[in-house]
Amino acid sequence: MKLVVTGPFGVGKTTLIRTLSEIPPLHTEEAMTETGAGHDDLAGVPDKTTTTVAVDFGRLTVPGELVLYLFGTPGQERFFPLWEDIARGALGALVLADTRRLGDSFPVMDMVEEQGLPYAVAVNRFPDAPTYGDEVLRKHLDLHPSTPLVQCDARERRSSVEPLIALAEHVLTRLPEDRP
Amino acid sequence: MSRAPRRRLVPAYLVTGGRQLTSRADLDRLSVLTLADAKLTETPEATAGIGPEHHRLCALLAPGSLSLVECAAHLGLPVSATVVVAADLIESGHLQARGPVPRAQEIDRSLVERLLVGLRTLR
Do A104 and A8 form a contact (C-beta atoms < 8 A)? Predict the structure, then answer.
């Protein structure tokens, strides 16, 4: 099964996939160059020196003979056309958010909604980022009551599984009941 | 074969005779093109009156089917121009087109349930 991990620039998609994947994630992170200076706003993430250029790919074997493929897609708006291809056949999407830059998640969420993919929002807790209660975050992200919101630490494996569970539950509620 | 981009000797718009639109609006870049009948392209008489790019497309498809976008890549033509060429050949009966493979149907509920059970054990 295929899952898409997305989120705005610098939110930790690659970290999450690296944490969850059992294979070294195939990724194409590149040192940022000055060419991106006008496009990629580093406000709030001054230390970021690499960024996902194409697609991260990770694999997670789930007990029960299932394999979950994780596709991390570029957060930058200029790559949105890639989305259509990646989203095809995906179970759902995980949108990562950063409490320091919540607003940056809006365009990404808009795009996921446009694709009609079920999604869950995972707030990646950065050590130096302010923490908020779920209710406050929901309000600021303007989430639909049915959309799951989970806070996690993308560097920690168990914590990173939580949003996946929330997403799977959410996908399940959207699927019609099995006919006997 | 060299991968270096070559400049076309004949501009793409001449291939299509300056046309942009075709009667076949259903041709998608993932449509699969197949030669309708190999005999139709074997004899010079059968292919009389079609352009060189049309010939190349027929020759390309002789070993088997290809998606439209692949044909475009092999021919070194823009997809939009390839659509026009392919539509001509479909109309003249040289080619057949089949729609792209449909998207996977609805996700299997039991599969998601198994996934959920499996994920919970990872906690």
Answer: yes
CA distance linking residue A157 with residue A18, whole number of Å = 9
Instruction: Check A176 against B109: CB less than 8 A apart.
Output: yes
Q: Structural domain boundaries of chain A? A: 2-174
Distance from CA of B111 to the nearest CA of A (A): 9
Domain at A2-174, CATH class? alpha beta
Nearest residue to B26 via CA among B109, B92, B98: B98
**Which amino acid belongs to residue A14?**
T
Q: Which of A170, A37, A27 is nearest to A93 (CA)?
A: A170
A6, two tokens: 């997305």
| Cβ partners under 8 Å of residue A83, min gap 6 | A6, A73, A111, A115
A9: phi then psi, degrees, rounded to nearest 5: -50, 125
Q: Does B30 contact chain A (CB < 8 Å)?
A: no
Sequence letter at residue B21? L
Instruction: Kindly give, in sequence order, each residue whose CB lies less than 8 Å from that of residue B100, ignoring residues fewer than 6 positions away.
Output: B28, B30, B31, B32, B67
Rounded to whole angstroms, how far apart are CA atoms A94 and A113? 12
Kindly give the confidence (pLDDT) of every residue in chain B, 123 residues in length, as a single tens digit, with 9 standing for 90 and above: 445 556 666 777 777 777 766 666 677 777 888 888 766 666 666 666 677 888 888 888 888 888 888 888 888 888 888 888 888 888 888 888 887 655 555 667 888 888 888 888 887
Task: Looking at the complex, report in whole angstroms how far the Cα of residue A59 sits from the nearest Cα belonging to chain B.
Answer: 13
Contact A87, A116 (CB under 8 A): no
